[in-house]
């Protein structure tokens, strides 16, 4: 008997079924079966082509979702059932994550709840609001009465994995074409539920214009749904109150959304009003503010007054929006005036402004320079530019300004030194006696600056004239090697001085000791003796979001318990839902996408796996193994453009497939003689100026005005001693 039966059901709407079945076939699980309840000939033909090992249940056109689910469930032999609509998706690794979670659940749990992402016809991978509710519930199984807020979860049957015995016991009630009803009823009927706060389902919303119009009966059915569900909450006070709140909110939202003919809207409002009065919990108190007014009018059945309230509200919102717009315009004029006045003040020789990665916080080369500045020139006061949301993450005592604030423009106008690893805004004026230091944040493999003009995917949205104007403000440009110096001169042509001093952020690779490495590994939970492999892919200009190009769970399985995968997504995707759905309870896969600084992750790792990320150039300073996973090199090279052929000058073994990568890491190929020779050539070329004293050279040259001849010379590479390996540090 398999642990899990995945029941794919429905017609092949807009060919989404093909994509879903291909993803299931690409990541098969021995302890899971796939059953396709295919509605219509197209779905049947697709299923027969794309699920050679699965069972196909052909169903006639027009078969409803409920009947299709029931037909698939009748063929299932798994202990758990996961219903997946044919239009929806399963993120990479989701099946394995779900299978592992249900395998550990005790027998009294009836329903496992999952997180999900939402996609539409024009967006993909948007996070749901369910994650915080699931995380708050924790991993312990609970009764719904003890955790009634779970009723506020998005009512998707695909985010409920049902115990097969539970399904059979309640099949008659759960077999309905009203999916939200079935999703909520499953919760209300379950003895105990458990949560999995990882994204394991993709809810794909089809374009409304491509669907049949909503009928009046479907509108009224919303009220009937909740009335029927509330019947299941008799004598369950907490569940009744939570579900009542969900009902009223959903009815008001549906009414406010509009689109109903006037007579249908009036009838819907009347039915919702009766339900709100009839089902109101004893002692229920309406929320304060406008929401309370809405609910009061609903309970009174005051349709005309509610419509008038909507008109007044819309008018108020329009007026407020106009006021906000005028305030923004006035504020911009005021800030511009304040900035212009500040530019008339003398430059402060003891003030330095720092920023990194579009104001994310204290990081990268600017952070290393600021730290050395505090040591060598404490008379210079640093102020960091940080976004409001990231300000809370700053080290205690960090002086900072928020972009757009009055002090922000004042310090930009009067600071002697402006340090950034990207660029300051176009509006920043270059004063003759101010110094702009561009530190950059990587060694270029991909085309940069004006070299992107020939690559539309990379150049999308770039204003090259504005870029050149920003470049002309640079006084100094930091470089880690001769290759980088030459490429910056080509990509960013201007009169700045190149500082061939090394990247300050890489100093730590020569100054860190065994204790530092042990501390990082302890923080990450990596036990002594375990191999840690850092997987850090870059972003692709031709992809809207990030989906790992590896089946990380399968890779972790193949490498065994002695290997930990540290997985770091590119910072460009920091605001999106994490696709790392296959994190393992064993601790063999750790999502370190939010861990800063990245240099500590490099120190903790025995080896690096990357594709085309500039992290390879920094990591090479440690003289530890690097493996390149280049499954789409030709596409990347063609769409982004590159400065050299990585396939001919790689820092270690190259894998073009996951199978090849697994073979390299599972044998000695990742650190054999060939890998060592390739890395030595790569280090000599790209770690040319990095020796542990780059920050000192930059501070002495830029902030203390010392002559280049008086700076600490760059140590030859054969005389450098990198930080100890994790094996040495934990011996």
Structural write-up:
The chain has 4 domains: 4-209, Spore Coat Polysaccharide Biosynthesis Protein SpsA, Chain A; 232-319, no CATH class; 332-505, CDP-glycerol glycerophosphotransferase, N-terminal domain (Rossmann fold); 511-693 and 711-719, Rossmann fold (3-Layer(aba) Sandwich). The longest helix is centred in the middle third of the chain and has 41 residues, at 303-343. It has 731 residues and is an alpha/beta fold. The strands form 3 sheets. Strands 1, 2, 3, 4, 5, 6, 7 and 8 form an 8-stranded mixed beta sheet that branches. It is built from 28 helices and 21 strands. 41% of the residues lie in helices and 15% in strands.
Short note summarizing the structure:
The protein is of the alpha/beta class and 731 residues long. It contains 28 helices and 21 strands. It folds into 4 domains: 4-209, Spore Coat Polysaccharide Biosynthesis Protein SpsA, Chain A (Alpha-Beta Complex); 232-319, no CATH class; 332-505, Rossmann fold; 511-693 and 711-719, CDP-glycerol glycerophosphotransferase, C-terminal domain (Rossmann fold, 3-Layer(aba) Sandwich).
